[in-house]
Specification:
24 strands; four-stranded antiparallel beta sheet
Length: about 260
């Protein structure tokens, strides 16, 4: 990331020993991703050129993308088998994998609260998607946002969480609430299909989003105080990005390119 638009020719391909990878997330010194084989998904960590499988289960799919805790030591993700969903946590070295809750009909990926004591997820209740906070101390999940809400993203300072509203045609609005669940003002922001992943730059005042046509998108930076935006990448039309993440120091982007 720099003050200039980044071209797709500047991107360096990451070689994956597993052959395929999706939903990349960047930790401190490692890359996390999901690999698929048959009807099963597995969670992998690539560090120093060595890939390590952190979690897998027969016939289970990882939904949404994984989330790395702020300390980089724990990973949360959601999985589905048939109609049953679960929220998991595993250490970054692959130890202590366990289910946090299976009581919700989960949708999409989770987000760690900055203090690391709970995880925010979206779940379907009475046919509507809502945000819930799931404590890690064994207490039951608690409703967080009453209106339609999905795809949570916590600001680094823990003061606000962004989320996507309902689809209206091929677009949706981005909204915000404070840590106590009260509404927070936000400059009007509407995104299109395939742009639901939201990421903050360090400092918490700038949001990184995918924006563009359904078949081709670039990364944009949004100033959450003023609403001012700036295009950060200029990918070739044939370079189709499905997912992305920002490194903890805010200096690099990892993108998932889709090829036929």
């Amino acid at each position: 990331l720099s003050g200039e638009r980044v071209e797709s020719s500047s991107a360096e391909r990451i070689q994956l020993p597993t052959g395929n990878g999706a939903s990349p997330r960047v930790g401190a010194g490692y890359l996390l991703y999901v690999s698929s084989k048959g009807a099963s998904d597995s969670l992998w960590k690539l560090q120093g050129g060595v890939a390590t499988e952190l979690w897998s289960a027969p016939a289970r799919r990882i939904i949404g993308g994984p989330a790395i805790a702020r300390d980089g030591l724990r990973i949360a993700f959601t999985s589905r088998q048939d109609r049953h969903t679960s929220l998991h946590v595993v250490n970054a070295d692959g130890t202590n994998a366990h289910v946090v809750t299976s009581s919700l009909e989960l949708q999409g990926g989770p987000a760690w609260e900055p203090d690391g004591r709970s995880i925010t997820v979206s779940a379907v209740v009475d046919g509507a998607t809502r945000l819930f906070n799931v404590p890690l101390d064994g207490r039951p999940p608690a409703a967080f946002v009453a209106e339609h809400s999905a795809d949570p993203a916590w600001s680094p300072d823990g003061e606000v969480v962004l989320y996507s509203g309902p689809d209206i045609g091929t677009t949706f609005s981005v909204k915000a609430v404070a840590a106590d669940g009260s509404a927070r003002p936000l400059p009007a922001l509407t995104l299109g299909r395939g742009s639901r992943h939201l990421a903050f730059l360090p400092g918490g005042r700038t949001l990184v989003v995918l924006r563009g046509e359904i078949g081709h998108k670039d990364l944009w930076l949004i100033d959450l105080a003023t609403g001012a935006d700036r295009q950060s990448t200029h990918f070739d039309p044939a370079f189709k990005v499905r997912a992305f993440d920002i490194s903890p120091d805010g200096r690099e982007i990892v993108v998932e390119e889709v090829q036929e």
